[in-house]
Design a protein that fits this description.
By secondary structure, the chain is of the alpha/beta class. It has a single domain (6-25, 39-152), classed as 3-Layer(aba) Sandwich (Rossmann fold). Helix content is 41%, strand content 10%. The protein contains six helices and four strands. The protein has helices spanning 6-25, 40-44, 51-60, 62-69, 86-95, 111-121, and strands at 76-80, 100-103, 129-130, 149-152. It has a four-stranded parallel sheet. Strand 1, helix 5 (86-95) and strand 2 form a beta-alpha-beta unit.
Length: 157
């Protein structure tokens, strides 16, 4: 059996509770039709995406996630455990300039990931983003309200 750190267990439980809470809160939202869904594949083909992200796309296959999540322009999204910001940038591209994505990382996040997220945040694709450094058990800044979605993705590859 794999022993998980207390921090990781807390993060996983917090993420699961948030997904559950968001699901309960959004029960009255009508499913988006294919007519108004963004063309996620076209967004992933944007010429300003890095070669490294295109390689990651082959492993992570982001279009099914984006489709399942139902992300739309103008949304306010918290991406917990953003790491280097791969999924945070995907969300930023979908929600566009009228939305905002918060790429949260804990204070003890790896320096390499912090530096990568900072570099990514300086790109035009991430103009509509913020990178709060907050613990998993209190991931949202006090002045942030009315989130449309919370994501917490774990990448094992």
């Amino acid at each position: 059996m794999i022993e998980l750190s207390a921090t990781f267990r807390r993060a996983a439980v917090t993420g699961a509770m948030m997904c559950f809470a968001v699901g309960i809160d959004s029960h009255d939202i009508k499913s988006a039709s294919a007519q108004n869904a963004p063309d996620y594949a076209t967004l992933m083909a944007a010429p300003d995406r890095t070669d490294a992200d295109r390689q990651a796309d082959k492993r992570r296959d982001p279009v099914p996630f984006l489709t399942f999540a139902g992300l739309r322009p103008g949304m306010k999204v918290l991406d917990m455990g953003a790491g280097a910001g791969y999924s945070t940038e995907l969300v930023a591209r979908v929600i566009g300039p009228t939305g905002i994505v918060y790429g949260q990382n804990p204070p003890d996040n790896f320096e390499r990931a912090r530096m990568a997220l900072a570099a990514r945040a300086a790109t035009s694709a991430m103009k509509n983003s913020a990178a709060p450094v907050r613990p998993y058990d209190d991931p949202v800044p006090a002045d942030v309200h009315d989130l449309d979605m919370i994501t917490y993705l774990v990448c094992v590859a």
